[in-house]
Write a structure and sequence with these properties.
Length: 362
């Protein structure tokens, strides 16, 4: 298969971790006879330095005409970097919002998986952590409260702020379809999270999700109220497979789910539109404090590349192989500094890439 991938290495540790993910992808291409065509473009701080703006039309066009985008994190030290002296619309993060909008990336996927070898980093009780968990939070990314009309007015001398939470049937339907499709690649279960006991938008959410579920009789659907979901994530995270939810609930629940894995350097993510196209990036930031030291953990980015193979290219066998290689490296006790514990072996960012690439196809 021919894979056309746009690459945005990003800022801080971005170039280091993306280089390792490309190393692993190249090995996959070699072992499974695929051809990868990379096109590198700039975004974020690197684009500000080169062009004065965080996102150029050229970057958008190259991404739009690729099958997928592999991205490192963007941004710098928010206290010291000159990028943060610019007005908000010219800062690195504006590039990220701009590209999501330009490419209509409405579905954000964040897996939260507890590796047995890293379970000591899980802040939950041992008997809960010992059961393990493997979930995927699917968050609606372009609607809801964060994009609704807002205003602050003064009425009779008293200030009043208004935010509005709006969803259309279509916005709900397209992400529900994604959730059921992806559940079929996992354990065939969707838990849809809402606040249907209070909010009209949630009642519509629930009824559209029910409607979509009729086309997926093989996928089990449950509904859960968001307050209960927040509790269940720490009481018994093993019950979740795909968690489908709207923008604000997903913002909060995906951070909670990340937290219980205990290791930020391991968390991948994807943002998808209604085609097979996706933008794949680690969940963490650009870690300017350790940039250039070759000590960053590249696994989140490598696992994002694995998500790309699975969700954009339907190359499930190749994606499984990357995940198996990551597991193998961890079982062999190899660790970057962020996940190092006594009795394991500390290795660099580039050595971690070599070790994972070396296990592909074995
Ligand atoms: P961060 O995630 O970059 O770093 C938090 C801490 O985790 C730091 O101590 C860092 O060294 C460590 N860390 C993060 N990723 C690591 C990895 N792969 N390996 C080892 N250690 C790792 O968060 P921050 O410091 O709040 O933000 C730094 C910059 O990143 C800011 O400019 C912020 O806006 C940006 N940011 C970008 C994205 C994105 O591109 N999607 C997301 C979050 C933050």
């Amino acid at each position: 298969m021919k894979l056309n991938i746009a690459v945005i290495k990003g800022d801080g540790i971005g170039p280091e971790i993306v280089t390792e993910a490309m190393k692993v992808l190249d090995k996959v291409a070699f072992v499974y006879s695929h051809e990868i065509n990379y096109k590198e473009v700039l975004m974020g701080g690197a684009s500000i330095d080169a062009y004065g703006i965080p996102l150029t039309d050229e970057t958008i066009e190259v991404c739009r005409f690729s099958d997928a985008v592999l991205m490192g994190s963007i941004g710098g030290d928010t206290n010291t970097s000159p990028w943060y002296k610019l007005e908000p619309s010219k800062r690195p993060e504006a590039g990220l919002l701009g590209i999501r909008k330009a490419l209509n990336l409405f579905a954000n996927l964040r897996p939260a998986y507890l590796y047995r070898e890293l379970s000591d980093a899980c802040p939950l009780k041992k008997e809960i952590a010992d059961k393990g968990f493997d979930m995927l939070i699917m968050r609606e990314l372009t609607g809801g409260l964060y994009f609704g009309e807002r205003k602050t007015v003064t009425e009779n001398g008293i200030k009043k702020a208004v935010d509005t939470l709006t969803y259309t049937e279509e916005e709900i339907r397209r992400i529900a379809i994604k959730a059921f499709e992806i559940a079929r690649k996992r354990r065939n279960s969707v838990i849809s999270v809402d606040k249907a006991n209070v909010l009209d938008s949630s009642r519509l959410w629930r009824s559209v999700v029910n409607e979509v579920s009729k086309d997926y009789p093989d996928v089990k659907l449950e509904h859960m109220l968001v307050d209960n979901c927040a509790m269940q994530l720490v009481r018994d995270p093993s019950q979740f497979d795909v968690v489908l939810t709207e923008n604000m609930f997903g913002d909060i629940l995906s951070d909670e789910a990340s937290m219980i894995t205990g290791s930020i350097g391991m968390l991948s993510s994807a943002s998808l539109n209604d085609t097979k196209f996706g933008l794949y990036e680690p969940s963490h930031g650009s870690a300017p404090d350790i940039a250039g030291l070759n000590i960053a953990n590249p696994i989140a980015t490598i696992l994002s590349a694995s998500m790309m193979l699975r969700y954009t290219f339907d190359l499930d066998k190749e994606a499984d192989d990357i995940e198996r290689a990551v597991n193998s490296v961890l079982s062999d006790g190899l660790r970057t500094a962020d996940i190092y514990t006594d009795g394991t072996t500390k290795i660099s960012c580039s050595d971690m890439g070599d070790e994972i690439a070396g296990r592909i196809g074995k």
